[in-house]
Amino acid sequence: MIQSPVEFFRTLPKKVCPECGQVMQEQAESYLMECDRCLSKKVE
């Protein structure tokens, strides 16, 4: 049975920062892999 696109996106796992493991709040058109806190540490 083929899954509907709506169900597919609803069941995707939450996006997690690979550096600290914090669950990230996803935003439209964002391809960032790290959370804001980890990204700010890299800039300093």
Write the layout of secondary structure elements.
Blueprint: H1 5-10, H2 36-43
Gap from first CA to last CA: 50 Å
Q: Supply Rg.
A: 14 Å
Strand segment tally:
0
Mean pLDDT: 86
Estimated structural class: mainly alpha
**Overall spatial form:** elongated
Number of helices, counting only DSSP H or I runs of 4 residues or more: 2
What pattern of helices and strands is seen along the backbone? HH
Q: Please give the largest β-sheet.
A: none
Percent range for helical residues? 25-40%
> What fraction of the residues are assigned to beta strands by DSSP?
under 5%
What does this structure look like?
- The protein is mostly helical.
- It has a domain at 15-43.
- The protein has helices spanning 5-10, 36-43.
- The radius of gyration is 14 Å and the shape is elongated.
Short description:
It is built from 2 helices and no strands.
Label this structure with key terms.
2 helices; elongated; 44 residues; 0% strand; mainly alpha
